[in-house]
Design goal:
Elements lengths: L10 E5 L2 E8 L9 E4 L10 H7 L5 E4 L16 H15 L5 E5 L1 H12 L6 E5 L13 H10 L4 H11 L7 H18 L2 H14 L3 H6 L4 E5 L3 H6 L2 H7 L3 E5 L7 H4 L1 H13 L8
Parallel strand pairs: 3-4, 3-5, 5-6, 6-7, 7-8
Antiparallel strand pairs: 1-2, 2-4
């Protein structure tokens, strides 16, 4: 079973001495708001391959590689949610993106929320996909989360990241298809992400980042698409997110793991299409 890898060549913009990668697709005369896609922890833009192929038929699509991830530079520095968000705000302005709909997968969803809260005039809408947007109070210091952080900072870093990526994938799928998807879209980016990037980003998200101010400031239409992943479900607090963002709408992909953007792309694409057609009519709060 063979899947085509992403065909796009990354383009780089330089900020603060670091090259930040993105890919761009879409027609010369696009319809509707552009899409701005943000990858997750130890991933790259390839996780959105089906979405880029689908939506670039009619819209301008820009998919970034977070600083330290994919084809972006990985300087020795602190990797914070605010830093990621400010990078992407700068990229958006530099690329002339006007009122994009921001879509983030996993950690990219938390970055997207921070982006839209810190830069409230930037986006037209926000979609988070299986994101620990607001960590549950019980999850922050749990043995599972602390064990993951210790493993990512330890000598078996790549084995830990590989095992985690596999364990939260689609256990409902045919084993051969699941393995092919993992090998094509997930394993390579995971193993290429430097340890200092992965550890710093995870530590800052778990121990130092407070997403509540960004959520309070985010007034644009907002959607959350979850997956069948008990670890993520236990670690997030969607009820608090609903209290802070009453404009939030939620959905869940059926029989799919954390990488549902590729596992069940047709479900995710349909949900995003519906949000673009109907959800953006909401003015938020």
């Amino acid at each position: 079973m063979i899947f085509d890898p992403p065909p796009w060549q990354p383009v780089h913009l330089t900020r603060d001495g670091a090259k930040l990668a993105h890919i761009e697709a879409g027609p010369l005369t696009p319809e509707g708001q552009p899409l701005l896609l943000i990858n997750g922890w130890t991933g790259d833009h390839g996780i959105f391959t089906p979405q880029i192929r689908h939506f670039s038929k009619t819209r301008r699509v820009v998919a970034v590689d977070l600083r330290g991830h994919g084809a972006s530079d990985a300087p020795e520095q602190d990797y914070t949610m605010a830093g990621f968000a400010d990078d992407i705000a700068w990229q958006s302005r530099t690329l002339g993106l006007v009122k994009p709909v921001v879509i983030g997968h996993s950690l990219g969803g938390a970055v997207a929320l921070e982006l839209c809260g810190r830069h409230p005039d930037l986006a037209a809408g926000l979609v988070m996909i299986d994101t620990i947007a607001l960590p549950s109070p019980d999850a922050a210091g749990s043995p599972e989360i602390e064990g993951l952080l210790a493993g990512v900072g330890g000598p078996d870093y790549r084995a830990v990241v590989r095992e985690m990526a596999w364990s939260i994938g689609c256990d409902y799928d045919h084993p051969a298809r699941r393995q092919a998807l993992f090998d094509t879209f997930i394993l390579g980016p995971c193993l290429r992400t430097p340890q200092h990037v992965a550890y710093s980003a995870l530590r800052n998200m778990i121990r130092h980042h407070d997403p509540v101010p960004a959520a309070r400031a985010c007034r644009i239409p907002m959607a959350y698409i979850s997956a069948d992943v008990p670890l993520v479900e236990a670690a997030r607090d969607l009820e608090l997110l609903r209290e802070l963002c009453p404009q939030l709408v939620t959905a869940k992909t059926l029989l799919a793991g954390h990488f549902n953007t590729i596992e069940v792309a047709e479900q995710v694409n349909a949900m995003i299409e519906r949000f673009l057609a109907v959800g953006l009519r909401s003015r938020g709060r």
